[in-house]
Each structure stands twice: as C-alpha cells, then as structure tokens.
Fold this protein.
Amino acid sequence: MNKRIYSISNIYEKIISPILENDQGVDAEYLTNLSLNILKFSSSKREWPIMKNIFKNISNELCIKSEKLSQNICGIDFINPIGLAAGFDKNGIAANIWRDFGFGFSELGTVTKFPQPGNKKPRLFRLAKEQAALNRLGFNNNGSTSLEDNLIKQKIKKTKDRKNICLGINFGKSKITPLDKSTEDYLASLKQLIPYCDYATINVSSPNTEGLRKLQDPSLLRELLYEIKLLNECPPLFVKIAPDLNFKEIDEICKLINEMRIEGLIATNTSLDRLGLEDRIILQTGKKLMNESGGLSGKPLQIKANNIIKHIHNNDKKIILIGVGGIDSPKAAWERICSGASLIQVYTGWIYKGPLLVPEIAKGILKQLEFYKISNIKDAIGSGLKWQD
Ligand SMILES: Cc1cc2nc3c(=O)[nH]c(=O)nc-3n(C[C@H](O)[C@H](O)[C@H](O)COP(=O)(O)O)c2cc1C
C-alpha cells in the first residue's frame, strides 16, 4: 500500500489546492468551516484506535522536533516558534489538534463576551493570483462561554503539567457593546478564559468592528490595559496592532507598552490598504475589489508587516514581538525572525500552501541555524542574518 496516498499533504494537494486556485467555486468561508468541523469530529474521537493511528501519522509527517527551535518566552515553553494565527479556530473547536499539525502554539479567537453572527455573507474572498484574502467577517463567534465549554470538553484547562499545548486566546469587543464600555466587555471574557490560556491577546486592530481601531489610541489603550493588568492571575499580554498605523503611532504604542509592563505586541492584523493589488470585479458581489470593505491578508502584506517588526525591534529590543502577515515560506519566516520577531504566526499562507508549510518552515529555520552555527533560535532574533539558499 502506498503510504503517501494517505498522507495529509497528499490529500491537501489533490483535493484542497485545486479549489484554492480559483477565486470562485467553493465558498472560502464554507470551506474553512467544513475543514474545522472535520477536525472537531476527529478531535472528539481521538481516543478511537483508528483515530490514534491517523493522528500518529499526521504528527509524524508534520511535527519537527528540535531543542534548537524551543524557547521559553515570558515563562511559556514554546516547542517551536511557529503559531496558528487568530481567526481560524475562533471557537476553539479543534484546540487540541494544532500541536499534531506541527504548530508550537495556536491562538484561538477572536472571542467576544457575547455570541455574535458577524457581518452579512459573503464576507471572505480568495484572491488566488496574489495568494491573498479579503475578509470582513466581523468577529463571528459563539462567545466566551461557548469557547470555555469547548475547551472543557477537550480537557485543556491550564495546569502545571499541561503538556504539549501552548495556547493563546485573542479577545475582542462585542459589537453590541459601545466603545466607552469596552473595558468591561474585554474584562468579562478575559476573566472567564484566563484559566485556559498561556497568553492573552488584546485585539484592538480588526478593521471589521466599527470603532475598534480607536482603541489603539494611547489614552484609550492605557485605560483598557490598566484594568486588564489588575486581573487576578493575569497571563502575559500581547496587543495586536494594525499594519495601517504609521511609525509615529507605533512608537507611541511601544512607549505605552513599556510603561505598563505589557509583554509584547503582535504585528500585524489585516490591512485596509489594498497594497498594490490589481482591481477587478469580485464575482460573488459584482463589486470592484477596491470598493469592497474588509481587511487584506497574505502575500501582499509581507513587506509591510516585516518592516513594522524591523522598526519596532530597532527602536526597542525589550518588547517581545510575534510577527504575522504574509508569511508563506521558510525564507519569509526566517526574515521575520531576523527582523526581530521571537515567534511567528501563519494564516493565509498556510491555507494556500497547505499543512506542509509548518514543517517546511521548521526545517528551513534549522538549516539556517546550522549554516550560521547558531545553537538556538533565540540567537537569531533580530540578528539581521540573511537567508542562505
Ligand atoms: C479569514 C480571516 C479571519 C481572521 N480573523 C481574525 C480574528 O478573528 N482575530 C484576529 O486577531 N485576527 C484575525 N485575522 C488576521 C490574522 O490573524 C492575521 O493577523 C492576518 O491574516 C495576517 O496574517 P496572514 O497574512 O498570514 O494571513 C483573520 C484573518 C483572516 C484571513
């Protein structure tokens, strides 16, 4: 029997990749939800002997183990620096599966206090030619109680001996909550979910919730972070920022982060800029791409997101950075780390390239470490070392 036929990468290549080459056809959101539900089912049956076997094969194919990739960052053990970015598993329905896909950590959410349906469909569009996506989902999620239930079902409450699962949870403001009541809204979901996460992300950068980005204003952000820091057993905090801020605005946020002893920043969320994309009609809506609202992700974001990491790290080496935006290859991951990111996350690139992207990035980093005779990835962070083919 040819084992390769049954490998996850082979199935992806044969079934999913051809669908992704086309902007029309199977709806992008439908495809995401279908994959997630298959994973949810598999996760709930992982004790079945047949599933155990399948998971063993998946993890043999996708997990690269090396001490050189592991780091302890603000007290959290990361077995490798590659994470699943927020937005894919919003409700945590497959939370205990991501490690089998080779990820060193995963970020669930964005979760809001109240369940909410998000914006009108269609609201997620593939832009295959540019390996990009446009989304205006609008924090569609089942709310913090549902996320908690899902984590309980998967038995992943944080304990001292919780092994192999490294979990961030990304928090956002509920749509029905007015901006001046944001703090209470964030606090309610945080309080509920602190027992489950290794770190918490304060998302003030989604372009699809009206007014949310105003919370990036230092005076409003200070108020929000001040209350969050007072929470009992507050985990390490990361603030997720937009790529559409200018360097002066970013510097002000960095100043605040230092002052308030916030652990780090996640840069970046999706962009309102169309980043040089060629205009065309989006067939699902009949409107021009440039007239569609939403945030752009994927390859066109790569340079901008990398420049932001570089800028922050050059100005301030203390802030821990998680780099995300357009990472779609081992080279792009290495560049982000050498620009100053301690950890990286993937989303759009992972969808287009498939599950093999994670082990390929891990192997690529290991090769570079070997080339430069570096014994642990932490010594590459912000080093400016160039990728060697
Ligand atoms: C469909 C989709 C949904 C997303 N949902 C969220 C979200 O709920 N919260 C969040 O912080 N970021 C969300 N993001 C942004 C990603 O986490 C990431 O920051 C961004 O896409 C850039 O990375 P990428 O180019 O690798 O996709 C979403 C992105 C996409 C494509």
In short: The mean pLDDT is 94. The chain has one domain: 3-379. The pocket of flavin mononucleotide is lined by residues 85-87, 90, 110, 124, 133, 135, 137, 139, 170, 203, 206, 240, 269-270, 297-298, 301, 324-327, 346-349 (CB under 6 Å). Residues 23 and 126 are 5 Å apart (CA to CA).
